[in-house]
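Here's what a typical entry looks like (IS30 family transposase):
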Amino acid sequence: PKGGDFSKLTVEAVSRVVTKINLRPRKRLGWKTPYEVYAGVSVALMC
C-alpha cells in the first residue's frame, strides 16, 4: 500500500508477488503470461 514500509518485506514475500504478477495473462501479450513470452524469446534466440 501507499506509504508502506518496504524495509520490513522479506525476499520471499517479494519473490511471491513478482511470481504472481508474472503468471498473470496479459491482453497486450495475446493473453500469454510474461513468463511464456520470455520463454519463447529465449528459445528463439538459442536456435
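The chain has one domain: 9-46.

More examples are in the samples folder.
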